[in-house]
Amino acid sequence: MFEGIITPIVTPFNRDEEQSINYEAAEQLINHLIKKGVSGIFILGSNGEFHVIDEDEKVAFAKKVIEIVDHRVPVFVGTGACSTKETVRLSQRMEALGADALSVITPYFIKPTDEELFEHFKEVANSVKIPIVLYNIPKSTGCNIPKEVVARLAMIDNIQAIKDSSGDVDNLKGYIEAGRGKNLSVLVGSDSKISIGYSLGAVGAIAGTSNVIVDVLVKLNKALKTKDTETASALQADIDVLRGVLKYGTVPSIIKRSLELANIATVGPARKPVRETTLEVDEKIKEMLKHYQLI
Fold it and tell me: CA angle at residue 280 from 274 to 286, to 5 degrees?
């Protein structure tokens, strides 16, 4: 389950007053990604705008995605919240729907102690039977999970992976060491660090850029697994062309607009307060897409 390229898909929205979820576009995107060879579909992560979607919407979206995927690949569902109570409740609801695994982000806004972090993840894991992926993204949460806490959490049966989006190679290395000899897989969450992560012992990547340039990411995974270092080096560098335009908008506006301009899926805008891209930014996105021969 924890291997290869797992796409943290954007949540498609309609351009209506409510910015309601566009299920048709979700199906369009999911089928495209599975056909291209991704190893998993991850919903309600950072690129999936979990932070601006209410609980009932999350459940309805997850139910539909699980139906669309229909066991072709595993479905990972983000259930993390600031409170342990809310995280447990949402995790149990997603397990009941048939999610294959849950991704649990660290509580954000506050800065929990190491013991508070441990108890939070332990309580969530004990509330369900399916696998848990710890999600570390300190630039967004203000909280980095220490490797010592990860080593303790790895002793819990269904805590089976960690996604590290810190971008810190030493941090990633610490998680790999913490999981050694235990049933804990490490997944790279920073797309610029996929090659180095694999070289250290990571087994896969949850790569936001694979929404748009899925061919590049799937080929990179294959090259890394077959030790084709020359091809892997070129593909890893090629990701930077997309990464270079991400600075022109708030997450995930550039990824969403790229999907639309490439005619991959009509995923709509990011939810407010994030604004739609300007015509000037659209031109930069089009130049990027031309590089990948997507338009």
Answer: 95
pLDDT digits (tens, 9 = 90+) for 10-42: 999 999 999 999 999 999 999 999 999 999 999
Q: How many CA atoms lie within 13 A of 86 on its CB side?
A: 13
Cβ-based neighbours of 142, under 8 Å, separated by 6 or more? 108, 109, 111
Structural domains of the chain, with CATH: 4-229 (3.20.20.70)
What tens digit of pLDDT does each residue of 123-177 get? 999 999 999 999 999 999 999 999 999 999 999 999 999 999 999 999 999 999 9
Model confidence band, residue 236 (pLDDT cutoffs 50, 70, 90) = very high
User: Residue 31 pairs with which residues in a beta bridge?
Assistant: none
Active-site annotation, residues: 135, 163
